[in-house]
Design a protein that fits this description.
The chain contains 14 helices and no strands. The protein is mostly helical. It has one domain. Helix 2 packs parallel to helix 6 and helix 3 crosses helix 11. The model has no long low-confidence stretch (mean pLDDT 85).
């Protein structure tokens, strides 16, 4: 497991090391990333659908997801609130134009669930057992991480400036530390080794990564739990950002985790104004790097 868990980090750093100047290539990479995400989620669903004793495990999975979501939410909000009290940030409210279309964003947030559901139904009712599905998922994930590394390197962002954004760095660290504290509290509840629970707590909203990586290490049931935990983070973030960002921007930006630099960024921009954008990009960028690193390290300890 050590080699496999750490091997997923290599494509990410390799992609980040390669500069690109072609806008056309970046456009192609964008669509490839989107396609790979849904393909990987479909494979996760197929693995769940072909899991032995699926029906008997669904209830337990639902409880595990609920516990993870609630404990992480409370811990993250507490950690981000403490950071807000220490380093308060006053946003400039967005007033230009219309909002980002919350209904459209919520529907987009449900698409990952739909992809997994389609895969689950296909695996349970239609497809024969596929012995190579884990290998295909692994190689697909490695390609996805390579492409995401390229995107991060060539997004016109200065790593030095991102690391020097004190608010973004502080939010990322607050979310990371509070998630690890939540993971430590959940060790006796989830009845897994401590390093596996900390890996579950380190997804930071990156559901396509956590579902496959955890699924390969701990089995499809835990992969499904990791996926649902992180996709629900994204959906909850869409709901709480407009409510919190005017008074506690660190909590609003931080809870979205890695999604703050992409999926939830339009809501942050619309609700909090331009002043929140560089902070959100910095925190989301740093969490996008920390998530695979921490998950790889923790799972390699098994």
């Amino acid at each position: 497991m050590l080699t496999g868990a750490l091997l997923i980090l290599a494509p990410l750093f390799l992609g980040f090391a390669l500069p690109l100047t072609s806008r056309r290539a970046m456009t192609v990479i964008h669509y490839l990333v989107e396609t790979l995400v849904y393909f990987i989620l479909g494979l996760l669903g197929v693995g769940l659908g072909q899991m032995e004793g699926l029906a008997t495990q669904l209830g337990g999975m639902a409880v595990q997801v609920l516990v993870l979501v609630v404990v992480l939410f409370v811990a993250n909000m507490a950690g981000l609130w403490l950071f807000h009290r220490w380093q308060p940030m006053t946003p400039v409210h967005g007033t230009e134009g219309e909002g980002p279309g919350y209904r459209r964003l919520f529907m987009a947030g449900l698409k990952p669930l739909l992809a997994v559901t389609v895969g689950l139904l296909a695996g349970f009712f239609l497809l024969p057992r596929l012995p190579l599905i884990e290998d295909v998922a692994t190689w697909s994930l490695m390609l996805l991480l390579f492409l995401i590394g390229l995107q991060l390197r060539n997004a016109g962002l200065s790593l030095r400036k991102l690391l020097m954004n004190r608010q973004g760095l502080g939010i990322a660290l607050a979310l990371t530390l509070s998630s690890l504290v939540a993971g430590a509290l959940l060790i006796p509840v989830l009845a897994l080794p401590w390093h596996d629970v900390l890996a579950l707590a380190s997804g930071f909203g990156w559901y396509s990564l956590s579902g496959i990586v955890v699924g390969e290490a701990l089995g499809p049931a835990w992969g499904g739990v990791a996926f649902l935990n992180d996709v629900l983070r994204e959906i909850i973030a869409l709901a709480i950002i407009p409510l919190l960002i005017s008074t506690r921007p660190a909590m609003a930006i931080g809870y979205g985790g890695a999604t703050a630099m992409d999926f939830t960024l339009p809501v942050i921009r619309s609700s909090g104004g331009l002043a929140c954008v560089p902070v959100a990009i910095a925190s989301g960028f740093l969490l996008s790097f920390l998530s695979p690193v921490l998950m790889g390290i923790f799972l390699s300890l098994g």
